[in-house]
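hiii, so i know i said id send this last week but things got crazy w the move. better late than never?? heres the sequnce for the chain we talked about at the cafe, plus the structure i predicted for it. fair warning i was half asleep when i ran it
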Amino acid sequence: RILNYFIANPRSNPLVVILGTLYAYFSKIYIYHFSRQKSDKELPSIMQVHPFFLKDYKLAGTNYSLRKTEDILGWLKDYDLRSKGVNNTSASDGELLRELVYKILH
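okay and structure toks below
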């Protein structure tokens, strides 16, 4: 439902903003993977998140392996370029977002 809402309202939810938000989220998960050995007191400052959200990033770190996180960051870059017309001749922003979300979830 959320994906369909974003696709149906591209003016209030531009793809470039969605991609930027996803990049910020997954880059923090990526940092978490390399900082797991740090204490719970050190992690929030390393990841630049509020300590309240640390448990959410820890859970995401278990749901998305380092390899999957790296793949997602690569896809985000690729879809950002495609949304700007690089190697994309006909896919709309909605189609690109649908493809990207499918890749992230599967």
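btw Residues 15-35 form the longest helix (21 residues). thought thatd interest u
miss u guys!!
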